[in-house]
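Hi C.,

You asked whether I'd gotten around to modeling the 488-residue construct. I have! Everything is below, sequence then structure, no commentary in between.
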Amino acid sequence: MGRYRNERDALRHRADQLEEELHDAESRLTEAEQRLAEQARKDEEEERQIAFLRSEVDRLRVKVGEAPLARPAGRSQAPIMIAAGALVVGGVVVGMLSISTTSSRSAVPQPVAKTEPAVAPVAPRDPQMAVFGAEVVATTNEKVAVGDGCVIAATLAGPRQVSKVDVRCGEELYRSDMEKGDGIQTFERGHTEVTAGEGIYRHALQYVRRGSWTGPLPQIDLNSHQHRGHIWRDGPEPWSITLHLDSFSFPRRGPSLGTSRTLSAVPDRRWSAKRVATEGTPPRAWREAPEACEVALSPSSAGRSSDGTAIDCRVTVRCGAVLFYGEGDFGFVHCPLEGASIGAVVDDGTTPENGDPKLRLEPATATVVVADTIDGESFSATFELAPSSDCLPEASWSGQVLTPSERHPYAMRVQDGVVELGPKGEDPLEVKLPAQCGGGALPLRADGAPLLVFGPGRRTLGGFTPAGKALALRSEGPNQVSPSSPPP
């Protein structure tokens, strides 16, 4: 069953996306209008003060026998204001600029028009953290290797508002408050929230900051919906890092920032895979991709197809930086649940028909086939899945508990059927879990333990601590499994 059965479903899905973008733009426009109204009020008050001071100066000059000062002609009823803060145009934030004009002098100050605020203030909300795991898929930075795990931490200031972002791949690569210096920039940022359970939320993130400036701040382009991340620096010592990230952040516990949709009940699943066969004449990217791959499945809020079938999950089939299935805005399918297990996942439409190749994911037989027909040429790739998708390998993990204002070191160790976790330097909390995955591996969820989800390549884990604070960990152990480490 395909992502969409006809063109109407594709249009409906795109309309939903455009609706979210519209809400985002309206929110930012409201903020800009508020700042504009506030600036107009301040300008009005300053004009009054200037007029009063001029009259006082004139009165005193007359008393001492001097003529009143010459006056500048009255300013236009309000300054020409291109933006009082930041104005969103077509989803792009254009930098602050305020221009006032004056003309020839006259003897009498002109009146100033009174400007009332156009929009009522929006009640502020407490900032929340949305944390993403990512995997390096290409790099020219000597301090970062392909396959490294990365953590992207976004501070969310309100509905669709992102105030800060930082990215660490062991090394700190990007922080919003790094020095930018002089220059010009394009700045686009926003998030969408979805409900993942009672009091639990996840977020899609878009954060773009690029241009030309003199400071050390790198340029950045993050779009979780399209699995895309790129951080780079130009200049005498340029470097570039490409990341793969999931559609949604790790689960977050806390208050809502403006949820509009609810994720399906489909659980997150992640399999290491190996490409074992290729037939026909596939694209060059397919032929040159590594054999070690990953298949990821996550819940969705896409709705239903025209025949009523739930489009309740999203699938990606990835080998290194190459997405065989689920590229860009695609990868949405129906994932049937059979008890706690996932049944066969099928997309029977080709790229010309619904934007994606065909897909057949069979968890029961541990196989995946991706096939397509373009311009009359048919081709396919077959993958074998590793036995487990949601089990925790024995390893040491280190990371941070993250709040909008602080970072605290945190660690987790898995060994001999016990998970030890807690702040570094303190006695760890021990959680005994049954080994259900074989080979000493452990399931991720249990009473008293954090709710954790793997990031791409199983290089990261994220979610929240028993106290509900955001938690992100990177594997330090030798037993991690990723697309850079093929399954046996």
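If it helps when you're writing up: Confidence is low (pLDDT under 50) at residues 1-5, 73-122, 478-488.

Thanks,
B.
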